[in-house]
Structures are given as structure tokens and as C-alpha cells.
Automatic annotation (TrEMBL):
It holds the Pfam family PP2C_2. CDD domains: PP2Cc. GO terms for molecular function: protein serine/threonine phosphatase activity. This is Protein phosphatase. Residues 2-236 form the PPM-type phosphatase domain. It comes from the Bacteria. Signal peptide: none annotated.
Length: 256
């Protein structure tokens, strides 16, 4: 088996700064995206701090890396951001959403906080693996709001969980089996607020994930790209299907 991936980040057409960040550590089976918030470049600092904490942990853990360790790295980032806000921002908040994909042996592990998302395309069916930690998503879950009305609701930008927002961080997790042909999409809400799921599904059907990734970004820019846009595509594929234009790394799903 091989893992192919393509990562990209763009500041969009409205924002002056790119407060998103991404991380690709294929040798360790780790990919992540983060969406910073706080203004005055605090969001930029926040998202990069989360990525740096993850990279430091992965580099030091080596083959002992585990989902619990990745969760602890996010907890460490949370404490560091709370301290940064108190000491450097006079109490103003620097926070970040995050979603982390960890592929280990024949399973994937997902960790997240906020509304950055992970999708899985399997057997031509697109599934959102993460669920948004947002005000409108909670309203939908409680039956107070129709799902079709969520994106246009006045509270659509209010998230209920993120790194650096509270002294305690609850990291959401899920895990399941990996299958050959699985395609994962990690992305910030700059993409999902511009493109509906059915359009994302359409672009992910490209055989070349680099083309699929570029198509996602192009369509987001055409739609107005009011926010920063960051995405990573990660595909499990057989060696015979590897496109040499993609960044690839060998993966033995049984012996990582």
C-alpha cells in the first residue's frame, strides 16, 4: 500500500492574513489542519502553535506515537495558548480549531475541536466523520433548527469548542478500520462554507488527488473565498494506482 497526499493553504480573497495552518507528517501517519482566531495576528500565532506542538510530540514519540499522545499534545497547546492570551494579549483570546488524522496499522484515528472537518470518501460515498462543535450544530441536534438552515443562520460562525478558548479542552475522538481506496479530506471552514457537500463529493472523484485538491481550491475562490482556505487530501492506494505527481510514502498497514 501507499499513502498519497496533497496539502494546500490560501488566504482567500477577503482576509489580509492567513490564520490557517496545516501539518503533514506522512512518515508518522499524521496530518492536521487548524483555523486560528483572535484577530491582530493572534489567530496566526494560535494555529501555528497547535501545529508546532503536534510536530514536537510526533518527532519525540517516534514509533511509540499513539492517539492518547496526540490528544495530550492538543491539551498542551491549549494550556500554552491560554497562557499566551493572558500574558501577551492582555486577556484577549487567541484560539484555534483543529482536526488531526492519524493512520496507524490498519486503523485511522481522528481527533478534533471546533468546526474544521474531516470527510471520508469510501466506495463513492462521502461521509463527514467529524461533527462541528458549533452553536448551530447543537441547535440542529436539539431539533431547534433544520440542517438546511444552519449555514445561513446568524450564529453560524459561533463555535463552542476550540484550542485555547477555555482552561479545559475536551478533544473529540473517533476511530475505525482503514480500507484500500479510502480518501480523507481535512479542511477548515473556509472551504465548507463556500462549497456544499455534494460539490465536494464531485471534485473528490478525480483519480489524481492533486487535481482534486486544486479543483476544490479553485471552486472555493470562484465562490468568493471570504475566509482562509486550507485542505489536505490523504489517499490509501495500491502501488499500481500511484500517481507520481502526488507526494507519496509507502505504508504497510499491518506493520507501521
Amino acid at each position: 500500500m501507499q499513502i498519497a497526499f496533497h496539502a494546500q493553504s490560501h488566504k482567500g480573497l477577503v482576509r489580509k492574513l492567513n490564520e490557517d495552518a496545516c501539518l503533514a507528517l506522512p512518515e508518522a501517519g499524521v496530518w492536521a489542519v487548524a483555523d486560528g482566531m483572535g484577530g491582530h495576528a493572534a489567530g496566526d500565532v494560535a494555529s501555528q502553535m497547535v501545529m508546532d506542538m503536534l510536530k514536537t510530540l510526533v518527532d519525540s514519540a517516534g514509533k511509540a506515537l499513539s492517539p492518547a499522545m496526540l490528544s495530550q499534545a492538543l491539551q498542551n497547546a491549549n494550556k500554552a495558548l491560554v497562557q499566551y492570551s493572558q500574558q501577551q494579549l492582555l486577556g484577549s483570546m487567541a484560539g484555534s480549531t483543529v482536526v488531526v488524522l492519524f493512520i496507524q496499522q490498519d486503523r485511522y484515528h481522528l481527533l478534533w475541536a471546533g468546526d474544521s472537518r474531516c470527510y471520508l470518501l469510501r466506495n463513492n460515498t462521502l461521509q463527514q466523520l467529524s461533527h462541528d462543535h458549533s452553536q448551530v450544530n447543537e441547535m440542529v441536534a436539539q431539533g431547534l433548527l433544520a440542517a438546511s438552515e444552519a449555514e445561513s443562520h446568524e450564529l453560524a460562525n459561533v463555535i463552542t469548542r476550540a484550542v485555547g478558548v477555555d482552561t479545559e479542552l475536551e478533544v473529540a475522538v473517533c476511530a475505525d478500520e482503514c480500507l484500500p481506496g479510502d480518501l480523507f479530506l481535512l479542511c477548515t471552514d473556509g472551504l465548507t462554507k463556500e462549497l456544499p457537500d455534494h460539490e465536494i463529493h464531485q471534485y473528490l472523484q478525480h483519480d489524481d488527488i492533486a487535481d482534486a485538491s486544486k479543483a476544490l481550491l479553485h471552486s472555493t475562490l470562484v465562490a468568493g473565498a471570504k475566509d482562509n482556505v486550507t485542505s489536505i487530501l490523504v489517499k490509501l492506494q495500491s502501488i499500481s494506482n500511484v500517481n507520481l505527481n502526488d507526494k507519496t510514502i509507502p505504508l504497510n498497514l499491518k506493520n507501521v
